[in-house]
Design a protein that fits this description.
The chain folds into 2 domains: 61 residues, no CATH class; 227 residues, TIM Barrel (Alpha-Beta Barrel). Helix content is 53%, strand content 14%. The chain is built from 13 helices and 8 strands. The protein has an 8-stranded parallel barrel with strand order 1-2-3-4-5-6-7-8, surrounded by 7 helices. Strand 2, helix 6 and strand 3 form a beta-alpha-beta unit. Helix 2 packs across helix 3, helix 3 runs antiparallel to helix 13 and helix 9 runs parallel beside helix 10. Bound molecules: flavin-adenine dinucleotide. Flavin-adenine dinucleotide binds next to strand 4 and strand 7.
């Protein structure tokens, strides 16, 4: 029930204003989201970099419905990359990109060209781009785009979702030299025909994929907050002799910060997935819907106003 409440709240402009207008409320926002604009994104990136953390910035878009919007999303990323470079925040900071925001559903070629322009801006800034994984109907198109982008920008990375039955095979294809793969569980509601449904089956698939990536030639990016999977990834990194710079851990901004610090202190590269943009409120509510334990934190901050 709480989950539905928070998902419903995601559309409430009134609640959004309430959260934003209280010092405590905006403190909650800042725990999970950099803020609504590039200035805040840069400031938070600086703080995280000062703590020894790498960052992947993700722009929270409105959902692209026109080619003009797709172009604006491209311009936002290109401008951000130039600012990251000017601020000396690259290569510690990279960007994550959703191809749907670049118009993938409207015109795959246009989305590719926009992604290419972002990769070029990233290369000029001395950093990289990772393609987010979206729902399963986009996986083939996203991986084709990845292969094409990697011809000009070999360090372009992509996220793969362990809940998809196909992913172990995709890991095998992508576990090649220079290939950066972010392995996550997967965040969309997917049918049984394409995705494992039970948490145990998803975890088992995650470990199989991890084994493929860690034993392969590429650069695994372990994106999970799950203590058991993190422990297994640490074990595999040791077993396959991967030292610092040969794999990394990724966690969402504000989630398990003590674990982020522990991994970084242990010599691992830790990258924080840092969202920013005007659509921060919906993102925040979805994080609460995902994990009811965060609700108490939220309620306490709001009632303290
Ligand atoms: P869960 O099954 O949600 O949690 C497992 C355990 O982890 C919990 O039992 C708890 O012990 C611990 N835990 C989880 N959350 C918390 C918390 N908030 N506080 C304390 N402990 C917690 N999904 C996509 O579909 N596409 C993407 O491109 C994508 N990119 C991602 C990038 C990053 C860096 C991360 C971290 C996630 C990304 N995801 C993406 C989301 C991902 O697929 C999962 O939906 C999300 O990470 C939750 O799964 P989990 O691995 O944390 O494990």
């Amino acid at each position: 029930m709480l989950r539905s409440l928070f998902l419903a709240a995601a559309g409430s402009a009134r609640l959004e204003r309430l959260v934003e207008s209280t010092p405590a409320g905006s403190g909650v926002v800042r725990r999970f989201v950099a803020g609504s604009g590039a200035d805040e994104a840069l400031a938070t990136t600086r703080e995280l970099a000062d703590d020894g953390l790498a960052v992947s910035l993700v722009h929270l878009g409105t959902g692209t419905e026109t080619l003009e919007q797709a172009q604006a999303v491209r311009d936002e990323h290109v401008a951000l990359l130039a600012r990251l470079r000017a601020a000396g925040l690259t290569p510690a900071a990279e960007v994550s990109v959703k191809l749907s925001e670049l118009g993938q559903r409207l015109d795959e070629r246009v989305a590719f060209e926009h992604a290419h322009a972002i990769c070029a801006a990233a290369a000029e800034a001395g950093t990289t781009v990772t393609l987010d994984a979206e729902d399963h109907t986009t996986t083939d198109a996203t991986l084709e785009t990845l292969l094409e982008l990697r011809r000009d920008f070999p360090s372009t990375g992509a996220a793969l979702q362990a809940y998809l039955r196909r992913t172990e095979g995709d890991c095998r294809e992508l576990a090649v030299a220079g290939s950066r793969v972010r392995l996550c569980k997967g965040a969309y509601a997917e049918p049984e025909s394409v995705a494992f449904q039970s948490p145990l089956d998803v975890d088992k698939s995650y470990v199989r994929c991890l084994n493929v990536l860690m034993s392969g030639e590429g650069y695994p990016m372990v994106a999970t907050h799950d203590p058991r999977l993190i422990a297994i990834a640490e074990d595999r990194a040791r077993w396959f002799d991967r030292s610092t710079g040969e794999c990394e851990f990724q966690l969402l901004h504000g989630v398990r910060p003590e674990e982020q610090a522990r991994l970084a202190a242990g010599g691992h590269t830790v990258r924080v997935y840092l969202p920013y943009g005007k659509q921060w409120f919906g993102y925040l509510m979805r994080r609460f819907a995902e994990r009811p334990a965060n609700v108490a934190y939220f309620a306490k901050a709001i009632s303290a106003r």
